[in-house]
């Protein structure tokens, strides 16, 4: 990691790369999302050799943001690493402490309880608990889980029959489909991504239309 950080400092420093020097936390946002998505694609395709490279691209984003923050004296990579190490130890008392858990479900409930305590047991607003950078289907799925909503095929059909032919109508249908998927333990975002990938692979080569 130190070699990667040194390279980023060189790219950002005098005589470095003009493009890298111009970047900010804000300008790098789409690249962070894109690199994470490409890593997910490699996992979905079972391409473990490519996954190593894609995870390297994700790690590059961590280094990039860390060096920018270092220049601004806001934080360093050491702070990033220390934060996640301390969090993992703190939220796994059954591994690093004396607590015991019966199964993975209890692990999750313990994690959530510790997380709430870290925030002073102050409930966070739903908008604070669902990242705005998520894909639209994933964000809707998380919102529905917070609301305890689970859908059915019949509800999807009912929405299809009544939704207006507008952006809002389309959104209503998509939300109903996400709820239907969630009721069956299906991640709508991943399901659509896999479906789209299959369609792309079936398209004939050549041409942009």
Automatic annotation (TrEMBL):
It comes from Deinococcus rufus. InterPro entries: MazG-like_dom (IPR004518), NTP-PPase_MazG-like_N (IPR048015), NTP_PyrPHydrolase_MazG (IPR011551). Residues 23-96 form the NTP pyrophosphohydrolase MazG-like domain. NCBIfam families: mazG, PRK12333.1. It comes from the Bacteria. Pfam families: MazG. Residues 117-136 are annotated as: Disordered. Gene3D superfamilies: MazG-like. CDD domains: NTP-PPase_MazG_Nterm. This is MazG family protein.
């Amino acid at each position: 990691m130190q070699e990667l950080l040194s390279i980023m400092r060189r790219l950002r420093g005098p005589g470095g790369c003009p493009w890298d020097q111009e970047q900010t936390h804000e300008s790098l946002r789409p690249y962070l999302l894109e690199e994470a998505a490409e890593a997910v694609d490699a996992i979905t395709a079972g391409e473990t050799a490519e996954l190593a490279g894609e995870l390297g691209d994700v790690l590059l984003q961590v280094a990039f943001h860390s060096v920018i923050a270092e220049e601004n004296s806001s934080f360093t990579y050491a702070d990033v690493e220390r934060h996640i190490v301390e969090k993992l130890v703190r939220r796994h008392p059954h591994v690093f402490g004396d607590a015991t858990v019966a199964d993975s479900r209890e692990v999750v409930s313990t994690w959530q309880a510790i997380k709430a305590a870290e925030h002073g047991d102050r409930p966070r607003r739903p908008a604070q608990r669902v990242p705005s950078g998520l894909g639209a289907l994933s964000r809707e799925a998380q919102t529905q889980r917070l609301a305890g909503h689970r859908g059915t095929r019949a509800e999807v059909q009912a929405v299809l029959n009544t939704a207006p032919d507008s952006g809002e109508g389309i959104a209503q249908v998509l939300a109903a489909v996400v709820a239907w998927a969630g009721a069956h333990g299906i991640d709508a975002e991943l399901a659509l991504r896999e479906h789209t990938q299959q369609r792309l692979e079936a398209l004939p080569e050549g041409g942009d239309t």
